[in-house]
Amino acid sequence: MMAELFAVLAPVFIVAGIGYGWARSGHAYPTDFIARLVMTIGTPSLVLSTLSRTHLDPAAFTSMALACVLAMVVMAVLGRLLSKVFDHDWRVLVPAFMFPNTGNMGLPISLYAFGEHGLALAVAFFLTLSIFQFTLGIALSGGAASLRSLLRNPIVISLALSLPIIFFDLHLPRWLANTADLLGGMTIPLMLLTLGVSLASIRLSHLGSGMLLGGLRILLGAGVGWGVGYVLAMEPLAHAVLVVQSSMPVAVFNYLLAVRANRSPEQVANLVMCSTVLSFVVLPVILAGWLAVLN
């Protein structure tokens, strides 16, 4: 079990660590260019490739999307309650609790832990969360959410292209499938490298509160994911993916939005860094439990 668990997490931590070490050593890393490349080309290609290559039952896709929405709603309520308990700005804690790092960390961990079918389910969760993050998340951070910008978002476009493939059991032409596979293959490594680089640029402050709230984000996320999956009577693999995606640390994207809106970016950075560090300890425990169940 330990060898299997190490095989799942080692690639994620090693590649993110390379990005972290690269940035800390002073080497240049074009974060804006890489992020734009991943968002506009890599991730849509990964979505299209994964959902077309893996047979995902429409009911399973719909169930995962519904589970994601329910988990977000519950986490938003918990974030609002904790903002009162800890006397924090709710516009900082609510997005941090609602939008975990289901892309940079959630997708590779789901792939290595649960295989291609697990990745397809994780993509369904990621797509649903992304739609809300690019609309409600931007609005909560103080930005202007636009339906037009959402419809022009490449990830949303890739979802629109993938849905007929899922629901009507269609197949991509071989040349297009191969192209999507090739472009999608760069996405997860670049996501992890960029995660490491981003963490290297974040400075910690108020370590105690960051660790406490970051730990609560992961543990409550895991509990909410388990509860939602139980209520929806999800099959074990889908339930496992839901719990793992729900228990991811605070997404770096929340920090970028806080910087742009000048809304307590230091506090958000603290949550991102502390929850990510804690995830290195908590996620192995969560994964070990689910791998034991599935095996």
Quick description:
Helix content is 82%, strand content 0%.
Describe this structure in words.
This protein has 295 residues and is an all-alpha fold. It contains 13 helices and no strands.
CATH second-level architecture: Up-down Bundle
Shape: globular
What class would the helix/strand composition place it in?
mainly alpha
The number of domains:
1
Beta fraction of the residues? under 5%
Mean pLDDT: 88
Helix content: over 70%
The CATH topology is given as Na+/H+ antiporter like fold
Number of strands: 0
Task: Please outline the helices and strands.
Elements lengths: L1 H23 L6 H23 L4 H28 L4 H9 L3 H39 L6 H5 L2 H15 L5 H11 L2 H14 L6 H25 L4 H11 L5 H10 L3 H30 L1
Helix pairs in contact: 1-5, 1-9, 1-13, 2-7, 2-8, 2-9, 3-4, 3-5, 3-10, 5-9, 5-11, 10-11, 10-13, 11-13, 12-13
Features:
globular, Na+/H+ antiporter like fold, 295 residues, mainly alpha, single chain, 82% helix, 13 helices
